[in-house]
Amino acid sequence: MTKQPNEAIRALRKIIGQTQAEFAEMIGASKDAVVSWEIGRNRLSVTWARRIALVTGADGRTLRLGVSVPVSNAKDAHLYTAADFEQHQKTEWGRSDEASARQHLEQCRETLELLLLAAAQPPGDQPRHRLPGLMDSFMHWCDRAREDFKLGPQIDAQLARRRRRVGMTQEYRDWQAMARGNPAELKAVGFQEDPTKTDREEIRLALEMVPGWAPGRSMKWPKPAVMKLAGP
Asked: Is domain 7-88 given the CATH code 1.10.260.40 in the classification?
Protein backbone atom coordinates (compact mmCIF):
# COMPACT_ATOMS: atom_id res chain seq x y z
CA MET A 1 0.00 0.00 0.00
CA THR A 2 1.39 3.38 -1.05
CA LYS A 3 2.20 5.74 1.79
CA GLN A 4 0.43 9.07 1.55
CA PRO A 5 2.08 11.84 3.59
CA ASN A 6 -0.36 14.08 5.45
CA GLU A 7 0.66 17.48 4.15
CA ALA A 8 -2.17 19.19 6.03
CA ILE A 9 -0.81 18.18 9.44
CA ARG A 10 2.68 19.34 8.51
CA ALA A 11 1.35 22.64 7.17
CA LEU A 12 -0.89 23.18 10.21
CA ARG A 13 2.01 22.61 12.58
CA LYS A 14 4.20 25.09 10.72
CA ILE A 15 1.44 27.71 10.53
CA ILE A 16 1.13 27.76 14.32
CA GLY A 17 4.92 27.72 14.66
CA GLN A 18 5.50 24.47 16.50
CA THR A 19 8.03 21.69 16.20
CA GLN A 20 6.85 18.09 15.97
CA ALA A 21 7.64 17.60 19.67
CA GLU A 22 5.79 20.78 20.70
CA PHE A 23 2.76 19.90 18.60
CA ALA A 24 2.72 16.38 20.06
CA GLU A 25 2.79 17.74 23.62
CA MET A 26 0.00 20.18 22.88
CA ILE A 27 -2.39 17.43 21.73
CA GLY A 28 -1.16 14.71 24.11
CA ALA A 29 0.40 12.48 21.44
CA SER A 30 3.90 11.12 21.04
CA LYS A 31 6.34 12.79 18.68
CA ASP A 32 6.53 9.51 16.78
CA ALA A 33 2.76 9.66 16.18
CA VAL A 34 3.07 13.13 14.64
CA VAL A 35 5.98 11.99 12.48
CA SER A 36 4.03 8.92 11.36
CA TRP A 37 1.09 11.08 10.22
CA GLU A 38 3.27 13.52 8.37
CA ILE A 39 5.26 10.90 6.45
CA GLY A 40 2.22 8.69 5.86
CA ARG A 41 3.28 5.70 7.95
CA ASN A 42 -0.04 5.87 9.80
CA ARG A 43 -3.29 7.53 8.83
CA LEU A 44 -4.78 10.18 11.10
CA SER A 45 -7.69 8.60 12.98
CA VAL A 46 -11.10 10.18 13.54
CA THR A 47 -10.30 10.50 17.26
CA TRP A 48 -7.03 12.36 16.72
CA ALA A 49 -8.52 14.53 13.97
CA ARG A 50 -11.28 15.61 16.38
CA ARG A 51 -8.78 16.47 19.11
CA ILE A 52 -6.55 18.46 16.78
CA ALA A 53 -9.60 20.33 15.53
CA LEU A 54 -10.66 21.18 19.10
CA VAL A 55 -7.16 22.36 19.99
CA THR A 56 -6.35 24.35 16.86
CA GLY A 57 -9.64 25.30 15.18
CA ALA A 58 -8.67 23.53 11.96
CA ASP A 59 -11.22 21.35 10.15
CA GLY A 60 -10.78 17.73 11.23
CA ARG A 61 -12.35 16.19 8.15
CA THR A 62 -9.93 17.83 5.74
CA LEU A 63 -7.04 17.02 8.06
CA ARG A 64 -7.88 13.33 7.65
CA LEU A 65 -7.94 13.72 3.88
CA GLY A 66 -4.37 14.97 4.07
CA VAL A 67 -4.89 17.77 1.57
CA SER A 68 -1.93 20.03 0.97
CA VAL A 69 -3.23 22.84 3.19
CA PRO A 70 -5.46 22.86 6.31
CA VAL A 71 -8.87 24.51 6.30
CA SER A 72 -10.47 26.49 9.11
CA ASN A 73 -13.52 24.95 10.77
CA ALA A 74 -15.23 28.36 10.85
CA LYS A 75 -18.61 28.74 9.12
CA ASP A 76 -16.95 30.52 6.20
CA ALA A 77 -14.48 27.73 5.49
CA HIS A 78 -11.20 29.16 4.27
CA LEU A 79 -7.53 28.31 4.21
CA TYR A 80 -6.25 28.09 7.78
CA THR A 81 -3.96 30.89 9.00
CA ALA A 82 -2.09 31.83 12.14
CA ALA A 83 -4.84 34.37 12.80
CA ASP A 84 -7.36 31.51 12.96
CA PHE A 85 -5.27 29.84 15.64
CA GLU A 86 -5.01 33.05 17.65
CA GLN A 87 -8.76 33.58 17.39
CA HIS A 88 -9.41 30.01 18.45
CA GLN A 89 -7.39 30.57 21.62
CA LYS A 90 -10.09 33.02 22.72
CA THR A 91 -12.87 30.44 22.44
CA GLU A 92 -13.99 28.00 25.13
CA TRP A 93 -11.83 25.15 23.88
CA GLY A 94 -8.81 27.15 22.87
CA ARG A 95 -8.24 29.10 26.09
CA SER A 96 -5.54 27.79 28.38
CA ASP A 97 -5.71 30.26 31.26
CA GLU A 98 -6.53 29.39 34.87
CA ALA A 99 -10.05 30.82 34.68
CA SER A 100 -10.87 28.49 31.80
CA ALA A 101 -9.32 25.55 33.65
CA ARG A 102 -11.49 26.20 36.70
CA GLN A 103 -14.58 26.46 34.52
CA HIS A 104 -13.84 23.04 33.03
CA LEU A 105 -13.09 21.73 36.51
CA GLU A 106 -16.63 22.48 37.63
CA GLN A 107 -18.07 20.81 34.55
CA CYS A 108 -15.86 17.73 34.93
CA ARG A 109 -16.65 17.47 38.64
CA GLU A 110 -20.35 17.12 37.79
CA THR A 111 -19.61 14.49 35.14
CA LEU A 112 -17.44 12.48 37.51
CA GLU A 113 -20.13 12.65 40.20
CA LEU A 114 -22.70 11.23 37.80
CA LEU A 115 -20.36 8.44 36.71
CA LEU A 116 -19.47 7.37 40.25
CA LEU A 117 -23.02 7.47 41.55
CA ALA A 118 -24.27 5.58 38.50
CA ALA A 119 -21.62 2.88 39.01
CA ALA A 120 -22.73 2.52 42.64
CA GLN A 121 -26.32 1.77 41.61
CA PRO A 122 -27.11 -1.85 40.71
CA PRO A 123 -28.72 -2.24 37.26
CA GLY A 124 -31.22 -4.78 38.58
CA ASP A 125 -31.80 -6.87 41.65
CA GLN A 126 -28.15 -7.91 41.86
CA PRO A 127 -25.24 -5.47 42.31
CA ARG A 128 -22.59 -5.64 39.60
CA HIS A 129 -19.70 -4.16 41.61
CA ARG A 130 -18.79 -1.72 38.87
CA LEU A 131 -17.43 1.03 41.11
CA PRO A 132 -13.95 -0.49 41.74
CA GLY A 133 -13.42 -1.05 38.01
CA LEU A 134 -14.57 2.47 37.23
CA MET A 135 -12.13 3.89 39.78
CA ASP A 136 -9.29 1.87 38.28
CA SER A 137 -10.21 3.19 34.83
CA PHE A 138 -10.21 6.75 36.19
CA MET A 139 -6.83 6.34 37.90
CA HIS A 140 -5.36 4.85 34.73
CA TRP A 141 -6.69 7.80 32.73
CA CYS A 142 -5.11 10.24 35.22
CA ASP A 143 -1.71 8.58 34.91
CA ARG A 144 -1.93 8.51 31.12
CA ALA A 145 -3.01 12.16 30.93
CA ARG A 146 -0.13 13.17 33.20
CA GLU A 147 2.30 11.31 30.95
CA ASP A 148 0.82 12.13 27.53
CA PHE A 149 0.64 15.89 28.16
CA LYS A 150 3.98 16.01 30.04
CA LEU A 151 2.29 17.49 33.11
CA GLY A 152 4.53 15.90 35.76
CA PRO A 153 6.65 18.98 36.56
CA GLN A 154 3.61 21.28 36.76
CA ILE A 155 1.69 18.84 38.98
CA ASP A 156 4.71 18.42 41.25
CA ALA A 157 5.01 22.21 41.51
CA GLN A 158 1.38 22.46 42.64
CA LEU A 159 1.84 19.68 45.17
CA ALA A 160 4.99 21.39 46.45
CA ARG A 161 2.85 24.38 47.45
CA ARG A 162 1.07 22.07 49.88
CA ARG A 163 4.20 21.40 51.91
CA ARG A 164 3.78 21.12 55.63
CA ARG A 165 6.02 20.54 58.63
CA VAL A 166 5.08 17.17 60.09
CA GLY A 167 6.27 15.46 63.24
CA MET A 168 7.11 11.82 62.57
CA THR A 169 8.04 9.09 65.04
CA GLN A 170 9.62 5.88 63.84
CA GLU A 171 12.33 3.41 64.77
CA TYR A 172 15.99 4.33 64.37
CA ARG A 173 16.50 1.65 61.70
CA ASP A 174 13.71 3.19 59.61
CA TRP A 175 15.33 6.60 59.84
CA GLN A 176 18.57 5.01 58.70
CA ALA A 177 16.83 3.52 55.68
CA MET A 178 15.37 6.92 54.78
CA ALA A 179 18.77 8.54 55.20
CA ARG A 180 20.31 6.18 52.66
CA GLY A 181 17.89 7.47 50.04
CA ASN A 182 17.80 11.12 51.13
CA PRO A 183 20.99 11.83 53.12
CA ALA A 184 20.99 15.62 52.69
CA GLU A 185 17.29 16.01 53.53
CA LEU A 186 17.50 13.85 56.66
CA LYS A 187 20.63 15.64 57.84
CA ALA A 188 18.86 18.97 57.37
CA VAL A 189 16.07 17.95 59.76
CA GLY A 190 18.48 16.79 62.45
CA PHE A 191 19.01 13.07 61.84
CA GLN A 192 22.48 11.83 62.73
CA GLU A 193 23.97 8.38 62.79
CA ASP A 194 24.36 7.36 66.43
CA PRO A 195 25.97 3.98 67.24
CA THR A 196 24.63 4.17 70.79
CA LYS A 197 21.03 3.84 69.60
CA THR A 198 19.34 0.50 69.04
CA ASP A 199 17.50 -0.39 65.83
CA ARG A 200 14.12 -0.46 67.58
CA GLU A 201 14.58 2.79 69.50
CA GLU A 202 11.96 5.36 68.54
CA ILE A 203 13.00 8.83 67.42
CA ARG A 204 10.78 11.79 66.57
CA LEU A 205 11.81 14.38 64.00
CA ALA A 206 10.02 17.29 62.32
CA LEU A 207 10.06 16.92 58.53
CA GLU A 208 9.06 19.14 55.64
CA MET A 209 6.66 16.92 53.67
CA VAL A 210 4.64 17.30 50.48
CA PRO A 211 1.80 15.12 49.19
CA GLY A 212 2.72 12.72 46.41
CA TRP A 213 0.85 11.97 43.19
CA ALA A 214 -2.05 9.64 44.06
CA PRO A 215 -4.98 9.84 41.60
CA GLY A 216 -8.26 8.70 43.08
CA ARG A 217 -6.99 9.24 46.64
CA SER A 218 -6.44 12.26 48.85
CA MET A 219 -3.56 14.54 47.97
CA LYS A 220 -4.41 17.13 50.63
CA TRP A 221 -3.74 17.44 54.32
CA PRO A 222 -4.44 16.22 56.91
CA LYS A 223 -4.21 12.71 55.41
CA PRO A 224 -2.63 12.61 51.95
CA ALA A 225 -2.41 9.02 50.68
CA VAL A 226 1.24 9.47 49.71
CA MET A 227 3.81 11.74 51.34
CA LYS A 228 7.39 12.48 50.40
CA LEU A 229 10.16 14.70 51.69
CA ALA A 230 9.98 18.23 50.34
CA GLY A 231 12.87 19.31 48.20
CA PRO A 232 15.07 22.30 48.97
From this structure: yes
